[in-house]
Amino acid sequence: MQDNPERHAEEDKHEDSLTDHEMQAIEDHAPIRAVAIFEAIRREGRMEMHRPANALAMSGYVAGLALGLSVLSEGLLRTHLPEAGWRPLVENVGYSVGFLIVILGQMQLFTENTIKALCPVLDDTTPAMLRRLARLWGLVLCSNLAGAATFGAVLWLTQGYQPQIWGAMRDISLHATSFGWGETVLRGIGAGWLVAALVWIMPNAGDGRASVIVVITYLIALADFAHVVAGTTEAALLVLSGDLDVVAAVGGFLLPALIGNLLGGSVFFTILAWVQIRTELEGDEGDLATMFRNE
Description:
By secondary structure, the protein is mainly α.
């Protein structure tokens, strides 16, 4: 990238007229650049790749359990709200509960790792990094699905205690799994893209992290986007109740949702963001890690 001496001279002139305190205030309130955001996510993803397998699996399992609370919270809100046209605007707030617990609790969520774990690979496409990516994705996805399915089984086993809430959750789940294969892929792309965008926004969110999580995940629910982990709780309770067979649940809902989440998070967000950053860094020597070490 070419330097502009006149522009730098103008900037220096303005900086000379400001106190050190004012300059510090400007720097404190300046948003983090895209290059720095990518580097922060890359470092976090690389660290996650080196965590022990049992730690990843347990964190992923607890995250799957916690995300099941999104289905329960939606069912609770639907049960206590009157049937009206505005009801979805309120009940879908419940979908954010599980995501708040998982993301603020730093648990392993597969759709977060479609961007976090991919960033180190984009910067270092060696076979060793690809193996670590496959290991992380495989462990986290399987443990997430196991945790979410367990929560769905618990909801089914306890349906007799509060039948109205069970009925609401069953109706929500039937609607979520009612779309065709291709449409579920498209809805999965929407959810994957938004979760990746959420991860990208977080470094600039500051004290508003919880609000950002609520807004983004609320939009996923309101738009009826398909999230493979939260959807596993819905699919599991329907399979156990006899409303959906295993083949239809896995092949007709979970598989297309997974494909969509991967496409939305990894391809349509992360790789395109990477292309933007490589363009910005064109002409710089070394990789991102080297650039940050030299600053």
